[in-house]
Amino acid sequence: MNVLSFSSHVVHGTVGNRAIQLPLNLRGWNVDCVNTTNLSNHPGFRTFKGSKTDAATIADIYEGLVEIGLEYDAVIVGYVASVPNLECIADILARLSYKPLVVLDPILGDNDKLYVDENLIPVYKRILQDPAGLVTLTSPNQFEIETLTDTKISDWSSLTASVTRFYDLYNVRYVVITSVDLGGTMYCIGCLDRDTTFAVAVDQVPAVFSGSGDLFLGLLTDVFHRTKDLETSLKHTVDVVQRVLKRTLELTDAKMSIGSTLYIPSLKLVESMDIIE
């Protein structure tokens, strides 16, 4: 199985493609990474060096893959650093002459805070609206689906309204909302269509982790490609990610914090290979 993954790259740490590639390799995937950044480490370490990849380079790399006849069973779109990059990736998706599983995480922000260029929002909207159905499955978090639908989720009723609004606006079959806080309990929400949703409760680990969303994205792509069953895929992905987070917490000595919350900037993926495989 072959997957093409558009996401960030760091030399040190486990975010972006560094959190996607190893788990998918362990599960039998050949992973080709197109890196949207090339950084020393991610900004969670408070200082970093490096640069964003320019759109022309992304386009050129992809053309090289086309010229040697490569096709992919799945395409992952993770962290995208700029509007030109996202527009380039949208063009690549539109030009595909075959139908891989396309999983897009519309990375905009979290906890009511935007941490990318706000001009990415309309580009994500155009990709999700495309009449050709460019995206098979999208995985926004609560803030991101609220941003994409101009809704606010505070309870089960408003969650239903947000999901309905998403399907009114966008041409995507499957939706996973990766984190929704309802009544003090965290859930992952799976949507098969506007009328068929299910919830998976998440046992919260008492820390904030960088890279957990990227790990989630890669694992969800793997299981959904194999099973075509979103509920099975989501339950499995949540279980594996939670066990990796707990292992990481157990093995982490360094103590950083965000406010009063423990912050862990790197997942222990190598140390968790027995969980991931």
From TrEMBL:
GO terms for biological process: pyridoxal 5'-phosphate salvage. The keyword Nucleotide-binding applies. Residues 53-254 form the Pyridoxamine kinase/Phosphomethylpyrimidine kinase domain. GO terms for molecular function: ATP binding; pyridoxal kinase activity. InterPro entries: PM/HMP-P_kinase-1, PyrdxlKinase, Ribokinase-like. It comes from the Eukaryota. SUPFAM superfamilies: Ribokinase-like. CDD domains: pyridoxal_pyridoxamine_kinase. Its EC number is 2.7.1.35. Keywords: ATP-binding, Kinase, Nucleotide-binding, Transferase. Gene3D superfamilies: 3.40.1190.20. Pfam families: Phos_pyr_kin. GO terms for cellular component: cytosol. PANTHER family: PYRIDOXAL KINASE. Belongs to the pyridoxine kinase family. This is pyridoxal kinase. The lineage of its organism: Eukaryota, Fungi, Dikarya, Ascomycota, Saccharomycotina.
